[in-house]
């Protein structure tokens, strides 16, 4: 069961260490901007992750589910199997939660918000 955490005045649900360790070869989607990845906001890039920024370059408007699904598809980050393990993250978990919710809305059933690259790394190292 994910743990409830408050970030920036909003409640998000982060996967527990046990949940993340139990996943077999998950797809990891990094929702940070390229600048955040370069600055290591939330940690260095998680090895093997796919960077699909939540916000389109130069935009502060959140994408629709359809718009983000198009970007995920273009990045080959939409598995064919709806039960494929997927972990989302950003710098702290807020956008990771939004991406996880969008993926669930697209019918994916094994989606987990890892929070940040550092939190995922820590969970897998424990």
Written description of the protein model:
With 126 residues, this protein is of the alpha/beta class. It has a single domain (3-125), classed as 3-Layer(aba) Sandwich (Oxidized Rhodanese, domain 1), CATH 3.40.250. It is built from five helices and six strands, in the order E-E-H-E-H-E-H-E-H-E-H. It has helices at residues 17-22, 34-39, 65-74, 94-105, 117-125, and strands spanning 3-7, 10-14, 27-30, 50-51, 86-90, 111-116. A four-stranded parallel β-sheet has the order 4-3-5-6. It starts with a strand and ends with a helix. The mean pLDDT is 95. Pfam families: Rhodanese. This is Rhodanese domain-containing protein. It comes from Diacronema lutheri (Unicellular marine alga). Residues 22-113 form the Rhodanese domain.
Which features characterize this protein?
126 residues, alpha/beta, Oxidized Rhodanese, domain 1, four-stranded parallel sheet, two-stranded antiparallel ribbon, 5 helices, 34% helix, 21% strand, globular, Rhodanese-like_dom_sf
